[in-house]
TrEMBL record:
PANTHER family: CITRATE LYASE SUBUNIT BETA, LYASE BETA SUBUNIT, PUTATIVE (AFU_ORTHOLOGUE AFUA_4G13030)-RELATED. This is CoA ester lyase. Its cofactor is Mg(2+). The keyword Transmembrane helix does not apply. Gene3D superfamilies: Phosphoenolpyruvate-binding domains. Keywords: Lyase, Magnesium, Metal-binding. Residues 5-207 form the HpcH/HpaI aldolase/citrate lyase domain. One of its GO terms (molecular function) is lyase activity. It comes from the Bacteria. It comes from Deinococcus rubellus. InterPro entries: Aldolase/citrate-lyase_domain (IPR005000), Citrate_lyase_beta/mcl1/mcl2 (IPR011206), Pyrv/PenolPyrv_kinase-like_dom (IPR015813), Pyrv_kinase-like_dom_sf (IPR040442).
Length: 269
């Protein structure tokens, strides 16, 4: 699966949203059976998700199950066995050694959203069946008893710890959701911050958030131009026998060249 810049949660009990999700151009959909679905709607949500998976999607689709040990565990697993999604999202994971029965042989995306989960993130990211980590800051902030603060200051340590764990094991890592669907500016600011922190993409809750996440986490034309310029300067420098070069006063080393090549590759340039 390509690095998802945007991953939209879609409540499994909301048929309208499931239908709408097909049209939004998100890189990844997460059909939800967990916190986005009230207990009395879980059975209907499982049925809807089965039917939607049978119909198929144009983009990769994950299903978020209820936690291991809940009353819904067995029924959730049966539901995703009927028509397998591209992976499973397991919420509130806290220790390595995810039970084999939970994996169903599918790639796993583990939600890091408790203090113990953050501390276990390096071991969780190391597991072979794990494709990615997803931060859940609603649960995490609740468990940590932090208060909302500008720039997510109280959560920065945890956010970076999760990125560090994912990167150490070559796994994908997605930032948490932004709850205020009417605050477009705040949302974009948080996307930029997440990208600066090293996240691959952002999880989303509303259609209005898709395009912004795609843009902020995507490769811009300016980045393509800068990458081309850097590669050209590097090749000239190397031809002149230099081990490293400067470009606009900035030192350029081999890893910057690697980054520039990755930018062009991702942009298909
Ligand atoms: C947040 C919402 C409840 C807002 O709903 P609503 O007021 O109905 O939104 P709109 O009227 O603006 O909707 C316009 C149309 O867009 C469709 N829609 C809305 N949301 C989605 C979506 N997520 N995916 C697909 N389509 C969506 C509506 O159906 C309208 O369509 P139409 O009628 O055809 O015009 C709502 O957006 C929502 O439920 N969002 C998802 C919430 C969710 O999934 N929450 C759980 C996951 S986040 C989480 O758990 C965090 C994590 O675990 C943590 O701990 O942090
Ligand atoms: Mg959560």
């Amino acid at each position: 699966m390509k690095r998802p810049r945007s991953a939209l949660y879609v409540p499994g009990d909301n048929l309208r949203a499931i239908s709408r999700a097909r049209t939004l151009g998100a890189d990844l959909l997460i059909l939800d059976l967990e916190d986005g679905v009230a207990p009395e709607h879980k059975a209907q949500a499982r049925e809807n998700i089965c039917a939607a998976l049978r119909e198929g999607f144009d983009c990769p689709v994950l299903v978020r199950l209820n936690s291991s040990g809940t009353a819904w565990e067995q029924a959730d697993q049966q539901a995703v066995l009927c028509e397998k999604p591209d992976g499973l999202v397991l919420p509130k994971v806290e220790e390595a050694g995810v039970p084999r029965s939970m994996t169903l042989g599918l790639p796993l995306w583990l939600m890091i959203e408790t203090p113990r989960g953050v501390l276990a993130a390096p071991d969780l990211a190391a597991e072979q069946s794990v494709a990615g980590l997803i931060v859940g800051t609603n649960d995490l902030a609740h468990a940590l008893r932090t208060r909302p603060a500008p720039g997510r200051m109280p959560l920065l340590h945890a956010l970076s710890a999760v990125v560090l764990a994912a990167r150490a094991h070559g796994k994908c890592v997605l930032d948490a959701v932004y709850n205020d669907i009417h605050d477009a500016e705040g949302f974009e600011r948080e996307c930029v911050q997440g990208r600066d922190l090293g996240f691959d993409g952002k999880t989303l809750i509303h259609p209005s958030q898709v395009a912004v996440a795609q843009r902020v986490y995507g490769v811009s034309e300016a980045e393509v131009q800068a990458a081309r310029e850097l590669l050209s300067a590097w090749e000239t420098g190397r031809a002149e026998g230099k081990s490293l070069i400067t470009l606009r006063g900035q030192m350029v080393e081999a890893m910057h060249v690697e980054e520039a090549r990755a930018v062009l590759l991702e942009a298909g340039a």
